[in-house]
Design goal:
With 182 residues, the protein is α+β, with helices and mostly antiparallel strands. Helix content is 24%, strand content 36%.
Length: 182
């Protein structure tokens, strides 16, 4: 009897692990996970001397897609936005070249000292296409109006992005290269 219970527990655990592995993928610098009714595709690390992370979200069928840069403070004393939301602007880089998508990103402040910038949803499909053909890295920078300088906040490898997006598409039933207009 004890052996039967142990065998049933082992099979249950293996089944749970098998299901979990179908809801998560980590490849290169990117990961994909299915939580609730949403697929998340996000970076695992940023380049040295930069911070934050990039995150795409997709509801089932690819609806209501979002793309954000979320700033990660360097220390516990950092409780204010690292940029001037009214005066500063975003510049995005694919490889070493600035791209126009930064003009469509807008700063926000969320609960818990969370600071970020979000891309206008109608341009996410185009950004994905551009990121997938880029040979270099992705950069998130802020044009600091008061300083007259551009500061790189996050540098990210695009290695694994295509596989992570494909996994999200599989889990949430959509084509990452042809998002629906939402």
């Amino acid at each position: 009897m004890l052996k039967s219970i142990a065998a049933a527990l082992a099979l249950s655990l293996m089944g749970g692990l098998a299901q979990a592995s179908t809801l998560f993928l980590e490849v290169g610098n990117w990961a994909a996970v299915y939580k609730g009714k949403t697929c998340h595709v996000y970076t695992l690390s940023s380049a040295r001397d930069t911070s934050g992370y990039l995150e795409f979200t997709f509801e089932n069928n690819g609806l209501n897609a979002t793309f954000d840069y979320i700033y990660t403070p360097y220390g516990p004393d950092e409780v204010e936005a690292p940029w001037d939301e009214a005066a500063d602007s975003v510049t995005l880089y694919l490889g070493d070249e600035p791209v126009w998508f930064g003009d469509e990103m807008f700063f926000y402040t969320a609960p818990g000292f969370t600071y970020g910038a979000s891309l206008t949803p109608g341009f996410i499909s185009e950004l994905i296409g551009a990121m997938l053909v880029t040979k270099g890295d992705f950069g998130f920078a802020v044009d600091r109006a008061a300083e007259g300088e551009t500061w790189l906040y996050g540098g990210f490898s695009l290695s694994g992005l295509d596989q992570a997006l494909a996994k999200a598409g599989e889990m949430c039933q959509f084509d990452p290269r042809a998002l629906p207009q939402s």
